[in-house]
Amino acid sequence: MGKHFENLIAQVKKYPMKKISVAAAADSNVLSAVKEAKEKGIADAILFGDETKIKEIAAEVGMDVSQFEIRNYTDPIEAAHEAVKLVHDGGAEMYMKGLLSTKDFLKSILDKEVGLRTEKKLSHVCVFEIKGIDRLLFLTDVAFLPYPTLEDKVDIIANTVEVANACGIEMPKVAPIAAVEVVNPKMPATVEAAELTRMNEDGTIKGCIVDGPLSVDMALSHEACVHKNALDRKITGDADIFLFPDIHAGNIAYKFIVHTTEFLNGCILTGTKAPAILTSRSDSTETKLNSIALASVVAEHLKNN
Amino acid sequence: MGKHFENLIAQVKKYPMKKISVAAAADSNVLSAVKEAKEKGIADAILFGDETKIKEIAAEVGMDVSQFEIRNYTDPIEAAHEAVKLVHDGGAEMYMKGLLSTKDFLKSILDKEVGLRTEKKLSHVCVFEIKGIDRLLFLTDVAFLPYPTLEDKVDIIANTVEVANACGIEMPKVAPIAAVEVVNPKMPATVEAAELTRMNEDGTIKGCIVDGPLSVDMALSHEACVHKNALDRKITGDADIFLFPDIHAGNIAYKFIVHTTEFLNGCILTGTKAPAILTSRSDSTETKLNSIALASVVAEHLKNN
Asked: Which terminus of chain A has fewer Cβ atoms in its 10 Å neighbourhood, N or C?
């Protein structure tokens, strides 16, 4: 493995330490993650939720809860409302889901008064370091937007370019991927990919280089581009951002990577005023910490831009 | 790596040696593959095409062309017509694409008089042995059918079950995969996956166990099913056949596997009277030989069933 996430965490430690506002924190999964993040100097956290339960679970996971600020709200919806408001008001730089449904978590993010909504669509990005690949790959959207429209894809690109920028990639290469690397009028994904490329050429999509439709071999392998006589493309095996045609393609590819390769990853929700973290119970501790580190570099980037 | 393809090739060598009928064989890529297949005792070949050119290219790739029967047809379409007819008439058990377009190759397969058409839709299957996974995975369709209908999917399952049977898997587990493992009325792929499961339960789809919609984590990892409290599913990390919702999902996942994992694979076209092989220029020699070996076990299976 390379040292991309290791470097990302080292970078986070150089910044002033950021705070995570946790919605409905009475969850062993989430408390373990914030405990580790604090121990490792990655981030601090403020815990919104049922104080009694939080203290019980903290004891179970061996967490010294006295080191964290707890704000007592027994109703998870209310806890989320207050937790997101803290981020909205600038009292914390990141927002994290605890023991409430994804739907209620998203509702709090989208709240018009205290939420984190921007004019852009929310999207999810999963950042991968994969053995044998010399850079971070930004996969989007593998978990959130089911069938993004062309307009949604413009937002997804903008959201993800910001995350790539935060990770130190100044001019990311964006591959709207499909089964093939040429436009086929019978395949809408290829038509939209070509349109995104055109919108990048005319300056509508800025801060990145878009080249689609692109097949994954050409997005990942320079050698494949040599084989296909395609060295005149803007992307020749060096794509940073992989924009999937829909959630099936995204999620299926994401899970094959997770279950068949040696990798490190971290994922966040973007298109928000502050990055949001939704870890899943089955994520490893490393993935949870990487997600927090990723959110931290994005928060730092947003502060400076 | 396991020894799945090694065992498959060992199995092929126990059968009477099969013949490949090659359409428009004047292609270095294809001649190298049939040369190796013959040297390794995997298959023999009859070469249809421009005899002068075949002999020239054979010399270039160090092939003793006197060991092969050549039938001289300078027109590639005519060569394909005669090559497929030989398979149709029982003079060869496998059909292979040489230097002609995929479209013309398929046309010859679909020819009503001399082709290899059955009542079923043609489909493509790519068989993978991946480091860390203790069985062969059958991925379909990653290269051929763009947007299979429910009816097409029934055919794809039947075609692929036959290939799995030929590889020694008596009752393959079929996962119609999607982004999620539950039906979501807003996601047609999940609705069709549930319908395929129902058709398997009522006996319309036979010879396999279908369980969908299924997410890839649950199709690949027993542990993921434990995490998700889903041990009551028919597939709990042990799927053999991965049925993709469309070609984007299939091709994208396929190429991520090829470019990020340690693997062996072989691919054939099925749903035909005899297996057809289309190797790509960028395939490794090992992949080409595995494809021929795969076609051989399928040909043997068809002979006996």
From this structure: C
Q: What angle do CA A132, A244, B213 make, to 5 degrees?
A: 100
Judged against a pLDDT cut of 80, whether residue A2 lies above it is answered with no
Tell whether B249 is within 8 A of chain A (Cβ): yes
pLDDT per residue as tens digits for the range A159-175: 999 999 999 999 999 99
The tens digit of pLDDT for each residue in B153-173 reads: 999 999 999 999 999 999 999
Of B132, B217, B228, the CB nearest to A255: B217
B125: helix, coil or strand?
A: strand
To 5 degrees, how large is the angle CA A31–CA A32–CA A36? 115
d(C-alpha A224, C-alpha A222), whole Å:
5
Candidates B256, B257, B263, B265: best to mutate against A (most CBs of A within 10 A) is B256
A114 near B CB under 8 A:
no
Predicted confidence at residue A220, as pLDDT, reads: 98
Q: Is B172 helix (H, G, I), strand (E, B) or coil?
A: coil
Q: Do A255 and B130 touch (CB under 8 A)?
A: no
Average pLDDT over residues A219-232: 95
Contact B17, B92 (CB under 8 A): no
Closest A-chain CA to B261: A261
For B305, half-sphere exposure in the C-beta direction (CA atoms, 13 angstrom radius) is 12
- Cα separation, B31 vs B45, whole angstroms: 10
User: pLDDT over 70 for what percent of chain B?
Assistant: 100
User: Which of chain A's residues have a Cβ under 8 Å away from the Cβ of B180?
Assistant: 251
Which chain B residues contact residue A189 at CB under 8 A? 248
Inter-chain contact B253–A258, Cβ cutoff 8 Å? no
| Shortest Cα–Cα distance, A94 to chain B (Å) | 27
* Cβ-Cβ contacts under 8 Å, A235 against chain B: none
Nearest CB among A133, A228, A245 relative to B260 is that of A133
Token output for A47: 């815990």
Check CB contact under 8 Å for B248 and A245: yes
The CA distances from residue A237 to A125, A220, A241, B251, in Å, are 20, 4, 12, 16
The amino acid that residue A99 corresponds to is: L
Q: What is the pLDDT of residue A202?
A: 98
Rounded distance between C-alpha atoms, residue A112 and residue A275, angstroms: 17
Place of tokens 């062993």: A28
Q: How far is CA A180 from CA A81, B18, B250, in A?
A: 45, 33, 11
**Calpha distance A52→A73 (Å, rounded):** 10
pLDDT in tens, A41-64: 999 999 999 999 999 999 999 999
Asked if omega into B213 is within 30° of 0 (cis), the reply is: yes
Query: Residue B282: what pLDDT?
Result: 81
- The residue of chain A nearest to residue B223, with distances taken between CA atoms, is A282
For A141, the token pair is 């959207």
Using a CB-CB distance cutoff of 8 angstroms, which residues of chain B are in contact with residue A228?
282
Instruction: From A106, A95, A81, A115, select the one nearest A34 (Cα to Cα).
Output: A95
For residue B48, what are its two tokens?
């249809």
